[in-house]
Fold this sequence. Notes:
By secondary structure, the chain is α+β, with helices and mostly antiparallel strands. It has helices at 17-22, 34-44, 61-73, 85-99; strands at residues 9-14, 49-54. It folds into two domains: 9-55, no CATH class; 58-99. Helix content is 45%, strand content 12%. It has a two-stranded parallel sheet.
Amino acid sequence: MGVDLGLQRVEIEGDALTVIKKTDINKRDESVISTCIEDINKLKEAFHTYCFSYTARERNELAHILATEGLERKEQIYLLREVLSFARRKMEQERILISR
Length: 100
C-alpha cells in the first residue's frame, strides 16, 4: 500500500517478532515463511527509509482490528479519507491504556 501511495518513509509495527527480526538479516531465509520474508525485503527497497519494529499484541490491537476489517471489506485503503467510529473508539481505549 505504501508503494502505491508513493510514500518515501515508512514505519511498520507488528506483533510477529520472528518476522521483524528476519527482515533485518541480509541472508537467504530458509524457514517456512521465507517467501513472505523475500517479498518484504523486495518491497522495503522501494522506500527511502524504513523501520520495522516489534510491538506487543496488546498495544497493537487497533492495527489488528483495522486489518481484519479491511480483509472483511476486501479493501486495502478504506481509511485514507476517514476514521471509522469503531476505530476511533478503539484508539481512545488504547490511548487511555498507554497513558497509565
